[in-house]
Structures are given as structure tokens and as C-alpha cells.
Specification:
Chain lengths: 216, 665, 464, 114
């Protein structure tokens, strides 16, 4: 059998797993994707010819009726906090998988299922906030077609939301595997790459929250 | 496990390897995928070339009547799009696929099924985009697709829809392949193959993958905006809503300029393989060649606006982008000189591959010099959007990229098929190409400076442009003839070419140490690499004693010729003598050489699978469903998207959960 | 060389032929060349271009010479020993990094200087011309020259596809687009600049040769179907002729008046009110008294016309007369500015009816027909639309369809009959009965007969 | 099989076989979460104070979000503890992305104070 084994896959040149290199390359690529989206939002900021506007009221004659600034900072601050907490849950899920069965990881801290569910639920909460935000904007007269702000805002945050959605589906898949056969230290990489993706999406939101919501 | 005589010995010409349509549809072998890329890209080259010839027929004389304005606009749009996305990039991908694992001493790429997926996406995407011809609505907005011309009010037909959806599909292919190759090159190098020992082609390929990964997201977003504008009524490019048409231009060229290097660097890499081999000298200044490639790529992200000097960005931006653009000339110039000095002092053998490589060096220089002329905005304002710039970028992309790629095909065809391309026919191909290219594109410098705008389907008589256009058209016909000869050469040599043997050119790198065509597992034993020129080390250890970057403690010090230890590398050169290529038996028939199968050797090979093809197909159909929106069938379009997305996800899930290869032990 | 020499001999032959052809070509006339020295800007560009081309040629010869020398010197010969493996040479590599850098500095400094020079604001006394790109024609407006119509509407001198520039005076173009991106270019005068919606670009230069001349201009940014057919003519004329031309343009065409259309020409109105009461509006200083051909600049700093060009006394008339310069004389048009576009074979028109065209009938047809939906003929109250080119002085123009055809009855008639057949994708409807109209996607039933078209042509041609 | 390859890996850029498992601890995670929350609270708080009108508002916000960005990347994405290759794979593109963003804002006149 040794003869056979000698032909088997050699270890990788770096000692790292292929998938982890690929996910980091992917995240690098995503940087450019979101940079393009954020640039567009910032370029078009203040260039809309009709309201509603993000931070300013819109009055006649520019708008038919008085329109309040549309961004809802309290709700978004809450959803930002939720997403940050989901990142915490995610690292704890990874730690639980990596250290399954080790001392100090008994109980809740070692329950990868709990932390995966928490992450997913927090992610879904974030998406719920976004859905609430979008519908209330539409009620206030801002759709993706209304003006440059609407187009670039919905596209940017929508792209981010789509990434969160994909992340939630990924987490649910991991959860299904965990329920089916249990995730252990051997599967740490599976969780790790999902976690990297998840944190990256969080990090993008940190930038969006400041650049879109807080800065006038 | 390794029981003998389970299957016949490996030989491509006999029944050893699986054959038949199904084996190609399900293949995950990087070499077969590379071959698929190669022939598909060559087929599209025929299409793109035909488009060019029709255009040159139209422009042969003033007031031409061969095609209408509308058809001409579709032709130049599709000619550009085809040549860039369906020919040069996939031809490069063919070499990436075929060569990267062989050059770094790997058995396959990091994600073999993803690799198959990339190819199928490319195939379906290219078919989708060209299907527009069948409905008479080929894209007509130029390959650059400037908004607002491409927005709904100015382009209400399906033409632009085909284009933007097609590019999105092709982008998926390029991105997937890029992640794959990045991982492969970082992670699958054979022992001893450190970064500064990688062959130049692999280096340039490595750089190109990063360009792809960073450039394609930007065009993706620009196209998403266009899609949203056209399908959902957003305002990214809507003039009446205050949109800025320059947004598209900036996003497009942030992608578009790195794209130029995506097109040229693989050819540079191939030339850096060919020149040393046929000079019998190592590449001059290897580290500088590597760094200049990286520098070109890096600077390539800081020059995009030189495509936009005419839009009025203001003197500061013009000056900055002018300077960064001029800077790029330096690493490019370094490459040219290093190539020349690679040949200097060598024993030059003028094979067809070598001739193509040399003509890249000679002619790319012209494109480089006219490039610097364009880098000066005041001069550029007279030159841009005339035939002068058409001349410039065809010297870069035809006399540069394509010459390099043709050279690469002559050089690597024996490795791919086991047979040499005919040098006799190849000489006709080369000289007709060389004359044709120069006759086509050199006069365009003059027609441009004498005031002829580009992208015109007709021009007036008496402007002094007639003779130049006639020459350009004649040159184009010569190039077409050259293309036909090339096709014949490939067709004939595949079955009647000389048997190549492992190493017909006495080349230095790993891919030449294994049989031609290589067995599915590539290397019986993963080689241990001890220098940049492993095969030359074995053949001429006395000459390579001073190779830099062969660090202390390297096994290369143990390498010696004739019977003694020459490294793990030497042991497995199954079909050859220790020297690799000069095997007298090999020139007779490689098919007689008995190679062990992967199974016999106990090498786990990935299972063939059809799933990537299905995922690619359903993804393409998902995008294609969006076309129905403009037929006022939104519900049907959405139904199509949902159906195909579901199918795609289902097959993707099946793919991801199926094991890649047998679990041995 | 084990290979067959025949292709190479072919190559030598081809190169010889190409060289001969080149020499023949270079001896030809190149009217649209960028190497004309008729503006300040083009001379600067030429200076820069010379640096670029000399440096480029030197590099080219140097590189190719070393390359060719290498190829001959180091070709493989039988029995040659293996070449020495040289891996690099730091000195050399530094040399060919530094030397190109020096060359680039030599190019870069004048480049940046020229950028800032040419993109500085135009001198304040420049002639202002507004260029507006349309799919696929050019609108040229002269905002410094305005007049008031009987109805009190303030009009500007506006023309289509023909640009008149006074010699010796800097012209500052304000570039805009109504639709997609276009690019404004007269190669013989200066480099191009794009016309972009929601952006205003500027371009200035001074045509400063001493002889009047005609040049070809073109759109050089792909702008859709008839991009190739979006051309124009630029005429550089003496200041006196320019003033005369302006005066003529300010008045409605004689033809419009002659056929008895019920309006009072602007010139009459303005004769009564030599000073516009408009004070600080668009063009406060202009609003010339009718006939005073002094091309008054808008800019307060210079009360006088032009850069040191005195008002031309010969053109001072209360009436614009045919004796004055009203259009670039056709007989003086160089051959290269006369379009040679062949007529579409499918489009039939009975040229015999043209001789019997009645301008008065034509005037009625135009003023009451569909033409009013898109065009302006100043002086005709119903003709106020600005979708298509302004036709006030269409009869005096040398070409139609944005430089695509000569402006003569034969071409004009076919244009009116079926413009889409004459120029692909054009926005003008088909008016010839029985012709197919791609815009309405139907055959024209309510339109004009050939005889009616002849009347319209007679009328349009009279709008000198 | 290991001994056949380990010696040949000496000169490749390998740190260890398999993952580098120096992940931060639970304690660190807690602190990181706390800091992130605090910064977010401060961000939102100053949004509602007169400081909003200060010229320092934007720079301060940018710095705070950069800090948040950095600590998530360094600790939650454990880039601080991971292979240097990953640092390169992330920071390289990030630098190009941010430079592109800044260049675009400049080109569209966002820094010219209108």
C-alpha cells in the first residue's frame, strides 16, 4: 500500500487548504465589487433631480409635496448592531466546531448548532430590518426608479442584502450537516470559509453604514 | 490495488484513454478542457475573422455597399467582443489550463470540476451571444457599449440585451477560472518549485488571474446597472434624471484597461517560453521579467482614464493619467530588451513558433510606441477615435497577443496532440500572417492621421484615404488566407504530423519531461524541482552551474548526468531517455510506448462528471430568460429565471455533495 | 535554414509593393490631415507630435536594429557549441530602465505644459459657439448674436451642420449633447472633444491663416446607426465676410418673406428697436441694430468686434443684400468638401418635375404639413419646433443630411421623399406617398406626391 | 508518505502542514464584540449631537469605521493569526479597491468642494 500511497495527492505547497485560498481570493474580488457599488452611490449622492433625498428634506417645487429625509438611522443602527452580533455568534460557532469535545467547550459554548442558528437568526433579523426599511421607503415614495439616489441606494444595499441572504443559506446548509452528522474539528475548514464570507459581508456593512447612513 | 493489465497501456492514439462525445462532455481533465478551449476559441476566431473581412470588404473603397450601416455596426461590435472575450481570452485560458499544472508539476488544477464549469459557461455564453445573429439583433453598441447609447431610449432592441447578458455569463467563466488558477499556482507547485523557479508563462498567467479577479467585478457592476436600467427602469444612465454618462465609461475602463493586460500578458508568457528554448539560452533577467509583469499589472489599474482624454476630465486628471500611462512603457520596454538579449549570443533556431515569437517582439514595439503617443493627451485628442488608434491596438492585440498565441500553438501543439504541426505549411501561415498584419494595420496609422474616423461604415471619396483602405483590405484578405492555411495545418497535423516525442524542442521546463500527449495523471511521480530549468540541468549541468535562485542546500547540486542520482525528477521520465526528448524511439511512435494507467499507479483521479455542464447550461438559460422581459413577458421571464435558477442550484448541490475522486486506502 | 524559402520571397515582394504603394499614397492630397497648421492649437499639437514621432522613431529603429542584428548574428550554425547561459546583466537592465525614463520625461514635460495651455479658459473676447450634438446632425448656435422676432421671442443665430468661423479670432466652443455621446472634430483645425449630456465641455482655438477655406468635420464618438453620416463643414472666412454672414443669418431668409408668409421679419422689428431692452439677459451686449454687421462680442472688456479686426465697412447695410457674403461660395468649395455619396438605387424620383416646382405652393405645404412638428423656419409662425435642424437659411447651405449629400434639388427631393432610405436610422419620417416609413412601420398614404415635393424643394431652396 | 515530501518542502513558503490554529480566544471575542458595539454607539450618538456639523465629523466617522473594519478583519476573520498569504490576498485587492474609489470620487469632483 505504501507504493500506492506515494502516488496519492501530495500535500499542498503552502500547507493550506485549496478552499481557503480560493475564498480569500474571492473576498479580494468582492472588494472591487463593493468598491464599484459604493463609488457609484457616492458619485450620485446629491445629484438626484427629484426627492426623496437621504439626509435632506425635499420641498416644492423640486418635489410635488414636502418629503422628509428618508433614512431611518435608529432602525439601521439596530440592524448594524444585529449584524455585528451575528459575527460574534459566527466566531463562536467556529470555535465550537474546532474545539468540539475539548475542555471549556462543554455546554452552550460548545454547541455549534446553537451558534449557527444564532448567526442565521441574527442574519435573518438583519434582512427583516432591511425589508422593513425598503417597504417603508417605497411607501414614502422612494423606489429604485425614483431618482439616482433610489437607484444607487437600493442597488448597493440590495446587493449587500443578497450577500447576507446567500450567507444565511450557507449557514443553514452547515446547520443541516451539523444536524445530520455533527460537525467536528475535521470540518473546521467548512465552517471557517463560511465564517470568512460572513464576516466579510459584515465588514462591508460597516463601511456602508458609515458612508451611506451617517455621513451627510 | 495496482493490478496489471486491467486496462491497456496509456496511448492517446489507441483505445487507452476514454474517447467519444460523452468523455468530452464529462471530462474534468485540465488538458482536455484546455483542448476544448483551444478548438472553441479557434472556431470563434474564424467567426470574428469573417466579421473583420466583411468590414474590410465594405471599407475597401469609398461609399461601400456591401453591408448596411446597421449590419456594419453589429459587425464591428461583435468583431471586438468576439476577438476579446471569445478568442484571445479563451485561447489564453486554453494555455492556462493545459500548461499551468504541467509547468508547476501538478496532476490537475485545484478544482477540476469548477474548471469544467468555466469551460461550459464560456461555450454556452459565447453561443448565447452569437445567437443574436440568428434573430438579426446582434449587439450594436460597440464592444465598449457607452451609455447612454446602450440604454433603452436609444437602443430599444434586444441587441444590447444579448451583449450585456452575454458578458455577464462570460464573466462568471473568467472569474471561476481565475480563482481556480490562483489556488492552483499558489498551492499545487511540486516540491522545490518555489515562486522564483516558476516558468515565465506560469508567472504571467498568475498575474493575469489577479487582473481578472480584480477587473471583472467592476464590469459586472457596470453591466448590472445597465441591466437594471433596461429591465427595471433604474436611472444609472438616465440622462433626464441627472445621470452622468461618464459613470459607465469610468467603470468600463477600470475593467477595460486591466483587460488589455489580461489579453497581452499570456502571450508575453508564451514568448518568454519560446525564445529561450530556440535560443538555447535561459531568459535574460528572469527576476526583472517577473517584476515587470507584476508592475505592468499593478500600474494597469491606475491608467484607465487615458481612454477618456476626450471627455473633458480637466488638466489635472489628464496629466496624472498621462504620466502613469507613460510609466507603463518602462516595464514593457524592459521586457522587449530582455527578450532581445535572451536571443543575443544564442543559437537561434527559426522554427515557426520562434518566428511568431520574434515578430511579437518586433511588432509589439510598434504598438508600444504608438501607445506612448496616445499617452500624451493633446496628441491623443487628434489621434483617438481615428484609424490611428485602430492601428495602435491591433499592433498590440494582433501583432502582440495573437502572434504570441499562434507561436504558443506551434510550440505546444506537439505536447497537446503528440504530433508536430507542419513547419512547411506553418511557414506559409507565418509569412502570410506577418505580411497581412502589417499590410492591414500599418496603413491605418496614415488613414487615421489623415482624418479618417473609426467605426464608420462608409466614407466619402476624395479624402485621400482610398489607397490606405485598399491596402488594409488587401492585408485583411491575406490574413484570412493565412487563417485558412493555419486551419488546414492543424487539421492535417493532428493525424499526419510528425510524432513529437516528449521534448521535440529541447526545452527546459517540466511539461517536456512527460510523454506527449501526457497521460491523464501527468506525472507518474510528482517531480522534485531543483532549478528554473530542470531539464537543462540534466542535459547541461555544466552550463547551469551559476543559475541564480538555486539556493544552498538544493538538490540540484546532486544532479549529474549518466546513471548517478539526478533527483526524483529523473526517475519517472517514462517514455524518454534521461535527457527527455532525444529519445530515438519517441520519434517513431509514442503510441507504442506503454504507460501505466492512473489506476495501476494508484493515483486517484477525479471522476468524470456531467454536472458542471448542467449547472453552466441552466445558468446560461437563467440569464437568457431575462430577454423575455423586453418581449413584454415579465411573468414568463420570471418563471424562466426561477425554474432555471432552481435547476442550477439543484445540480450545483449534487455537484458539491458528490465525491471528487475515489477514496483510496 | 532547413525551411522552405518561398514564403520569404513572397514577403520580400510584398514589402516592396507595399513600400511603393506607400510612397504613392504619401504624394497624394490629404485634406483632412491633422498636420494642417491653420490654428494655434494644431501647431502646438504638431510640435508635440513631432517630439513623439521623432523619439518613437528613434526607439523603433534602435530596437529593430538590435533585433535584426541579433537574428542574423546569432542564427544557429552547424557545429556551433552550446551558447553560454547568461542569466542577466544588472547594468544593462538598469540602463534600459533609466533611458526610457529619460525619454519619457522629455515627452512628459511638454505634454503637461500643452495640457494646461490648451485647457485653460478661452480668452474672454472669444467668439462663442455652442455646439449641440444630435443623432445624427450638428446644431451650431452663436449666442452672441441674437435678435427678437415679431412675437417678442429672443432668437439666436443658429445653423445646422455648417460652421462659420472668422479668421484671426479665437473661437470658444461650448459642447453639449441632446442625446448620446458625440465628439466634435475638425482634424485640420484641432483635436476632438466629446459632447456629453449633463456635461458641458469646452474647446477653443484660433483659425489664423489668411485665406478663407472649407474643412470637413465629423462626429468621432460612435453614436448609433448613422454615426458615419454625422459630418459637417467648417468654413473659415474673413471677419468681414463673417460679419456679413451673421447679419444675413439674423434676418429670416428672403424666400420665407418672398412667398408672402404673414409675418414681419425680425430685421424690421429690430430696425425699429436698435437696442434690446433686455439689459442683463442672455446676450446683453449683442442685439445689434439690423444690418449693423459689427459682430459685437458679449464680453464687456472689448467693446469692439474681433481681435483687432475692424468692423468691415463694406458690409454695413440696413438690408442684408445678396451682394454681401451670405454663404461660402459653392464654386470655391474644394472638391473634398463636396460629398460623393451615391443616391440609393431603390429610391425613385421623377427629376423632371423639379423644374416646375412652385415655391409658394411649397411654402404652404411646409407651413401646414408635418414639417412643423420638427423644424423651425424663422419668420414662419407655425415653424417653431426644434427637434430637427433649423431650416431658416437651409437654401444657402452647401450640404444636407449632415454633410452626406450636396444641397441641390435632386438630393433634397429624395430626402423629403424618403429620408430613411437616404440616411440609415434618421429620425425624419418618410413623406413620399407609397414609400415605406420605418418609423411608423407602414407605407405612407398621407404624404406628398413627387410634384408636391418639387414645390417643397423649390421653397426650401429659396430659403437662402 | 510524509517523509517523502517534507524534506522537499523545506524551501517552499510553508509554515506548517494544515491550518494555522492560533485563533483568538473567547475572551478576545467578547472584547472585540464590546468594542464594536461601543464604537457603533458612539457613531450613532455623535450623529445626533451638534458635532454633526463640525468639519471633523466625517473624518472621525471614517476613522471609527476603519477601526471597526480592521478589528473584524484581524480578529473575527483571524487574519492577524493566519498565514501571511491571506493577508496579501486581502490587503492587495483592498488597497486597489480603495484607491480606485478615491480616484473615482476625485474624478467626479467630489473633493472640489463644489
Amino acid at each position: 500500500m505504501t507504493a500506492v500511497a506515494s502516488h496519492a495527492h501530495p500535500p499542498t505547497s503552502t500547507g493550506l487548504d485549496h478552499r481557503k485560498i480560493a475564498i480569500w481570493a474571492f473576498i479580494g474580488s468582492e472588494c472591487m465589487l463593493f468598491a464599484s457599488l459604493i463609488s457609484t452611490y457616492l458619485i450620485y449622492k446629491g445629484r438626484s433631480v427629484v426627492g426623496p433625498f437621504p439626509h435632506e428634506a425635499c420641498n416644492p417645487p423640486v418635489c410635488a409635496t414636502h418629503l422628509n429625509p428618508i433614512l431611518n438611522i435608529p432602525v439601521t443602527s439596530f440592524s448594524t448592531f444585529v449584524l455585528l452580533m451575528s459575527s460574534l455568534a459566527m466566531v463562536l460557532a467556529l470555535a465550537a466546531v474546532e474545539n468540539k469535545g475539548k475542555p471549556g467547550y462543554e455546554g452552550l459554548l460548545g454547541s455549534s448548532k446553537f451558534w449557527l442558528i444564532s448567526t442565521a437568526v441574527l442574519g435573518i433579523t438583519f434582512l427583516g430590518c432591511q425589508a422593513y426599511e425598503f417597504t417603508s421607503f417605497v411607501h414614502e415614495g422612494l423606489t429604485i426608479r425614483t431618482n439616482l439616489f433610489g437607484s444607487s441606494f437600493f442597488t448597493l444595499t440590495g446587493f449587500h442584502g443578497a450577500h447576507v441572504t446567500a450567507g444565511v443559506l450557507w449557514l443553514i446548509t452547515l446547520l443541516a450537516i451539523d444536524i445530520k452528522r455533527g460537525l467536528g474539528p475535521k470540518d473546521a475548514l467548512l465552517v471557517d470559509i463560511a465564517a470568512l464570507y460572513w464576516h466579510f459581508v459584515d465588514v462591508v456593512w460597516i463601511a456602508i453604514f458609515t458612508l451611506v447612513y451617517l455621513i451627510k | 490495488m495496482a493490478t496489471a493489465a486491467v486496462s491497456p497501456s496509456y496511448a492517446r492514439t489507441s483505445s487507452g484513454s476514454p474517447s467519444g462525445i460523452w468523455s468530452w462532455l464529462t471530462t474534468v481533465d485540465h488538458k482536455r478542457i484546455g483542448t476544448l478551449y483551444l478548438y472553441t476559441a479557434l472556431a470563434w476566431f474564424a467567426v470574428g475573422g469573417t466579421e473583420a473581412v466583411i468590414m474590410r470588404m465594405q471599407l475597401q473603397g469609398p461609399n461601400g455597399r456591401v453591408v448596411s450601416a446597421e449590419v456594419f455596426n453589429q459587425l464591428f461590435t461583435m468583431h471586438g467582443t468576439t476577438m476579446i472575450f471569445l478568442v484571445v481570452m479563451p485561447l489564453s485560458a486554453a494555455f492556462f489550463n493545459f500548461l499551468i499544472p504541467l509547468q508547476i508539476g501538478a496532476r490537475d488544477v485545484a478544482f477540476p470540476r469548477l474548471n469544467a464549469f468555466s469551460y461550459w459557461v464560456y461555450l454556452f455564453g459565447s453561443l448565447f451571444m452569437n445567437a443574436s445573429w440568428l434573430v438579426g439583433m446582434a449587439p450594436n453598441g460597440g464592444w465598449f457599449g457607452y451609455a447612454p447609447l446602450t440604454t433603452l431610449p436609444y437602443s430599444p432592441g434586444l441587441n444590447i440585451d444579448f451583449w450585456m447578458l452575454g458578458l455577464q455569463i462570460l464573466g462568471v467563466s473568467s472569474l471561476a477560472a481565475a480563482f481556480n488558477f490562483i489556488t492552483t499556482i499558489i498551492n499545487m507547485r511540486a516540491p522545490g518549485m518555489n515562486l522564483m523557479r516558476m516558468p515565465m508563462f506560469t508567472w504571467m498567467a498568475f498575474v493575469v488571474q489577479f487582473l481578472l479577479v480584480l477587473a471583472f467585478p467592476v464590469i459586472t457592476i457596470a453591466l448590472v446597472f445597465l441591466q437594471f436600467d433596461r429591465f427595471f427602469g433604474t436611472n444609472f444612465y438616465t440622462i433626464t434624471q441627472g445621470a452622468d454618462p461618464l459613470l459607465w465609461q469610468h467603470l468600463f475602463w477600470i475593467f477595460g484597461h486591466p483587460e488589455v493586460y489580461i489579453l497581452i500578458l499570456p502571450a508575453f508568457g508564451l514568448v518568454s517560453e519560446i525564445l529561450p528554448t530556440f535560443s538555447r539560452k535561459p531568459i535574460f533577467g528572469y527576476p526583472v521579467m517577473v517584476y515587470s509583469g507584476i508592475l505592468i499589472a499593478f500600474l494597469g489599474f491606475g491608467v484607465w482614464a487615458h481612454h477618456m482624454f476626450a471627455v473633458g476630465m480637466g488638466p489635472i486628471a489628464d496629466s496624472v493619467f498621462s504620466m502613469t500611462t507613460m510609466l507603463i512603457a518602462i516595464p514593457t520596454g524592459v521586457k522587449i530588451f530582455n527578450w532581445i538579449f535572451t536571443m543575443w549570443g544564442g543559437n537561434l533556431r527559426f522554427t515557426v513558433a520562434m518566428k511568431f515569437a520574434i515578430s511579437l517582439v518586433a511588432l509589439f514595439t510598434i504598438g508600444g510606441i504608438s501607445g506612448v503617443m496616445h499617452a500624451s493627451p493633446p496628441a491623443d485628442l487628434q489621434q483617438t477615435d481615428t484609424y490611428f488608434i485602430v492601428a495602435h491596438f491591433h499592433y498590440v492585440l494582433v501583432a502582440g497577443s495573437l502572434m504570441g498565441l499562434w507561436g504558443g500553438i506551434y510550440y505546444y501543439f506537439p505536447k497537446i496532440t503528440g504530433r508536430l504541426l507542419s513547419e512547411k505549411i506553418g511557414n506559409w501561415h507565418f509569412w502570410l500572417t506577418f505580411i497581412g498584419v502589417n499590410l492591414t494595420f500599418m496603413p491605418m496609422h496614415w488613414s487615421g492621421l489623415y482624418g479618417m474616423p473609426r467605426r464608420v461604415y462608409t466614407y466619402d471619396a476624395g479624402q485621400g484615404w482610398e489607397i490606405f483602405n485598399l491596402m488594409s483590405s488587401t492585408g485583411a484578405y491575406l490574413q484570412a488566407l493565412a487563417g485558412i492555411i493555419f486551419a488546414y495545418n492543424i487539421f492535417r497535423s493532428r493525424t499526419h504530423g510528425e510524432i513529437a516525442g516528449n521534448d521535440p524542442w529541447e526545452a527546459p521546463s517540466l511539461e517536456w519531461s512527460i510523454p506527449s500527449p501526457p497521460p491523464d495523471y501527468n506525472f507518474e511521480t510528482i517531480p522534485t524541482v531543483t532549478s528554473r530549468y530542470p531539464l537543462w540541468d540534466i542535459k547541461h549541468p555544466e552550463l547551469t552551474a551559476s543559475v541564480p535562485h538555486s539556493r544552498h542546500g538544493d538538490e540540484r547540486n546532486d544532479v549529474s548526468l549518466g546513471g548517478k542520482h539526478v533527483g526524483a525528477f529523473h526517475d519517472h521520465m517514462a517514455a524518454g531517455t534521461p535527457e527527455g526528448g532525444l529519445n530515438p524511439n519517441a520519434t517513431q511512435a509514442s503510441s507504442k510506448v506503454s504507460l501505466k494507467t492512473a489506476e495501476e499507479l494508484g493515483i486517484p483521479m477525479p471522476y468524470p462528471t456531467i454536472k458542471p455542464l448542467w449547472v453552466a447550461l441552466f445558468m446560461t438559460l437563467m440569464f437568457a430568460s431575462l430577454l423575455l422581459i423586453h418581449k413584454d413577458k415579465l411573468p414568463l421571464a420570471m418563471a424562466g429565471v426561477v425554474t432555471f435558477a432552481t435547476l442550477m442550484t439543484g445540480f450545483l448541490y449534487a455537484w458539491l455533495t458528490a465525491p471528487l475522486e475515489p477514496h483510496h486506502h | 535554414m532547413p525551411f522552405h524559402p518561398r514564403p520569404r520571397r513572397l514577403a520580400q515582394l510584398a514589402l516592396t509593393v507595399a513600400l511603393v504603394a506607400f510612397l504613392a499614397a504619401c504624394g497624394q492630397d490629404h485634406p483632412d490631415t491633422i498636420f494642417h497648421h491653420r490654428t494655434d492649437v494644431n501647431r502646438d499639437v504638431d510640435y508635440l507630435f513631432k517630439i513623439l514621432i521623432y523619439a518613437g522613431t528613434a526607439v523603433f529603429i534602435f530596437v529593430e536594429a538590435i533585433l535584426v542584428w541579433t537574428l542574423f548574428k546569432f542564427r544557429a550554425r552547424p557545429g556551433q557549441p552550446e551558447p553560454e547561459h547568461v542569466h542577466g546583466n544588472t547594468t544593462l537592465e538598469i540602463a534600459w530602465t533609466v533611458i526610457p525614463l529619460l525619454i519619457l520625461i522629455v515627452i512628459g514635460i511638454p505634454t503637461v505644459k500643452t495640457i494646461f495651455k490648451q485647457q485653460a479658459a478661452a480668452r474672454s473676447d472669444a467668439l462663442q459657439v455652442e455646439v449641440i450634438g444630435h443623432q445624427w446632425w450638428w446644431e451650431f448656435r452663436y449666442p452672441q448674436f441674437t435678435m427678437r422676432s415679431a412675437s417678442g421671442k429672443l432668437d439666436t443665430v443658429v445653423t445646422a451642420n455648417e460652421l462659420y468661423l472668422p479668421l484671426g479670432k479665437t473661437v470658444n466652443f461650448t459642447l453639449k449633447s441632446r442625446d448620446v455621446i458625440h465628439s466634435f472634430w475638425v482634424p485640420a483645425l484641432a483635436g476632438k472633444r466629446d459632447l456629453i449630456a449633463n456635461h458641458t465641455n469646452y474647446l477653443w482655438y484660433t483659425p489664423d491663416s489668411t485665406t478663407s477655406d472649407a474643412f470637413n468635420g465629423a462626429c468621432v464618438e460612435y453614436c448609433g446607426t448613422s454615426h458615419a453620416n454625422m459630418r459637417f463643414k467648417a468654413f473659415t472666412v474673413s471677419q468681414a465676410d463673417f460679419d456679413s454672414w451673421v447679419a444675413h443669418q439674423e434676418a429670416p431668409a428672403e424666400g420665407a418673406v418672398a412667398v408672402g408668409t404673414p409675418i414681419s421679419p425680425d430685421s424690421a422689428a429690430k430696425a425699429a428697436a436698435p437696442r434690446s431692452p433686455l439689459g442683463s439677459q442672455i446676450d446683453p451686449n449683442k442685439n445689434l441694430a439690423a444690418g449693423s454687421t459689427q459682430a459685437g462680442p458679449t464680453v464687456p472688456s472689448s467693446g469692439k468686434a474681433g481681435v483687432g479686426v475692424p468692423p468691415s465697412p463694406g458690409a454695413v447695410n440696413t438690408q442684408v443684400t445678396q451682394a454681401g457674403f451670405v454663404a461660402f461660395p459653392r464654386e470655391k468649395m474644394p472638391a473634398y468638401t463636396v460629398p460623393s455619396t451615391p443616391l440609393p438605387a431603390a429610391l425613385k424620383f421623377d427629376d423632371n418635375v423639379l423644374a416646375s416646382g412652385n415655391a409658394a405652393n411649397g411654402a404652404k405645404l411646409v407651413a401646414t404639413g408635418m414639417c412643423i412638428a420638427c423644424h423651425t423656419v424663422r419668420g414662419v409662425p407655425t415653424m417653431q419646433a426644434t427637434v430637427g435642424p433649423n431650416l431658416t437659411h437651409v437654401g444657402s447651405r452647401t450640404t444636407i443630411a449632415a454633410g452626406l449629400y450636396p444641397n441641390d434639388p435632386r438630393h433634397l427631393a429624395r430626402w423629403v421623399k424618403n429620408a430613411n432610405e437616404m440616411k440609415a436610422g434618421v429620425g425624419m419620417n418618410t413623406f413620399g406617398i407609397g414609400e415605406y416609413d420605418p418609423i411608423t412601420k407602414s407605407t405612407v398614404k398621407i404624404g406628398f406626391t413627387d410634384a408636391q415635393i418639387a414645390d417643397i424643394v423649390a421653397y426650401l431652396s429659396s430659403l437662402k | 508518505m510524509a517523509d517523502q515530501f517534507t524534506h522537499t518542502h523545506a524551501e517552499t513558503d510553508v509554515h506548517a502542514m494544515g491550518e494555522v490554529h492560533e485563533h483568538p480566544t473567547w475572551k478576545q471575542y467578547k472584547w472585540v464584540a464590546l468594542i464594536l458595539t461601543l464604537i457603533t454607539v458612539v457613531e450613532v450618538w455623535i450623529y445626533y449631537t451638534p458635532f454633526k456639523e463640525s468639519p471633523l465629523f466625517v473624518p472621525v466617522l471614517l476613522i471609527m469605521s476603519a477601526v471597526k473594519f480592521a478589528i473584524v478583519v484581524l480578529f473575527y476573520m483571524h487574519l492577524k493569526y493566519d498565514h501571511k498569504l491571506f493577508k496579501a490576498l486581502f490587503t492587495g485587492p483592498l488597497i486597489i479597491a480603495m484607491s480606485t474609489l478615491v480616484a473615482l470620487l476625485f474624478l467626479f469632483g467630489k473633493f472640489s468642494g463644489r
